[in-house]
Amino acid sequence: MPSQRYRDxxxxxxxxxxxxxxxxxxxxxxxxxxxxxxRDGNQALPEPMDPVRKRRFxxxxxxxxxxxxxxxxxxxxxxxxxxxxxxxESTMAPDDVTIVVFTPARRxxxxxxxxxxxxxxxxxxxxxxxxxxxxWREVVLQKGRGELLDLIxxxxxxxxxxxxxxxxxxxxxxxxVFNLTEPDYALEVCDAVTELWEATPERxxxxxxxxxxEVATPNVYADQIEYMHRHLARRDAVVLxxxxxxxxxTGIACAELALLAGAQRVEGCxxxxxxRTGNVDIATLALNLHAQGVxxxxxxxxxxxxxxxxxxxNRIEVPSRHPYVGDLVHTAFSGTHQDAIxxxxxxxxxxxxxxxxxxxxxxxxxPYLPIDPADIGRAYDAVIRVNSQxxxxxxxxxxxxxxxxxxxxxxxxxxxxHVQKHADATGLEVDAPRLLELFVAHYLASGGRGIELxxxxxxxxxxxxxxxxxxxxxxxxxxxxxxxxxxxxxxVRLLGEQRIxxxxxxxxxxxxxxxxxxxxxTLIEYRDGSGAAWAGGRDRSVLxxxxxxxxxxxxxxxxxxxxVLGGPDG
Length: 570
Known about the structure:
Blueprint: E1 32-35, H1 37-43, H2 51-64, E2 68-72, H3 78-88, E3 98-104, H4 107-117, E4 124-131, H5 134-141, H6 145-163, E5 169-176, H7 183-196, E6 205-211, H8 218-231, E7 238-244, H9 251-260, E8 265-268, H10 282-291, H11 303-314, H12 335-355, H13 392-403, H14 409-426, H15 432-444, E9 451-461, E10 464-473, E11 476-483, H16 487-497, E12 503-511, E13 520-528, E14 531-539, H17 542-556
Parallel strand pairs: 1-8, 2-3, 3-4, 4-5, 5-6, 6-7, 7-8
Antiparallel strand pairs: 9-10, 10-11, 12-13, 13-14
Helix pairs in contact: 2-11, 3-4, 4-6, 6-7, 8-9, 12-13, 13-14, 16-17
């Protein structure tokens, strides 16, 4: 790998020494989020959005609560121009939503942009940009620092001349590739623009500082933002904005550290679509704040519907491991993770019950789940799924949540071996219905010896109990009445008299569903000549379910051989 080729191509920009304050800060409130999916994100799509998709995406962002939305690049295409005019000529944008449009620093394109926003009643931001980094100055624009500053100020003057009289219009400037621009030059350019635009606290200018191509670690970007934050002229008349890209895969970290360093506004795309590896993902950023107890001020209560809309508009699927929104981000297959999550759910419900409060009002403390999936509209049915890597805790969780089957710990261990064997043999995920099939096959099946229940009754005569039992064993009916014992013990005795010995070690009962129509399930741990094992029975009657469990055990037991008396002549 010829790594040495890149040392001087994207050289790290050194920030003049300042005593860093950002490492000691914490984010305590949400920034102003500005989704740029309709402009920056749209430019990065193989098939740019048509008007129907743009409208649907815009409506989604409004419904989620975004108050500033970049809607297009009206001088770049007729589609974008027409969409901005649709906003101007309709009521699709609520009064409190600011409309942002994007333009390069060229007079004819600025004129076209101003024509597009003319008549919009909403607040409007005209976003002017020009690349300022050395490589862009030298290779693309072929201008020196002074010449480029003149070009930028000419564009800023055109914006002011054409739209400065409009009371609902404010201005934004981006020194594109800010993160590769010399800090002193970036500061010079930004201060010159805010001076020309006469920025005031009543009509502030947005200075947007993009990491257009991410080339350094996030702490470098934080240093750059803090340097600007502390040295900008008219700081109280500036809204400091950032626009990180994700070339190094650390766009989220860049944005979070930039907020610590003084940024007040973040531009990005919902789920991070954008050129190359994408723009910063503002949904992840917002939900990261939510996970730290900070209200993100955006509604993610139905994240799957948000994802479906974004996928429809972008024609790009969101990966299954994408933070928060991916299909598998709340799913555990690993046995150790499943066991911890299951115990966390139990503890969470116990704390809620002890406090007499709804579960959603109790502090969230479930291992491996940074947020409650219910916060974003997710059910718990996909939290634990079973494959060959899973353990007893996950298996027990699925059977309990899906069917109400509560497995004792030793039965969890026993059943996990059967599930593991099945998963290894098939190589497939084992869903809840298949788990139930395996459970029934191993513990409730009627196979083995021919032993069937004919009748069992419990009679109480003046405080004295009697159990009447009739069993069909290998085609022969056996009936007995027993005084002073219960029906389950009576069944065990009758079986023993036929040399089928079942020693019950533990017995557990549960209901398989709520309500009067539910079935009872009895699980028994028993011992026969070959050691301890498990069996189960189910029925509408608790008594019959218990007897069926004993009979299931009896079918698996080896009968005691008959005793032969006397010698060979006898």
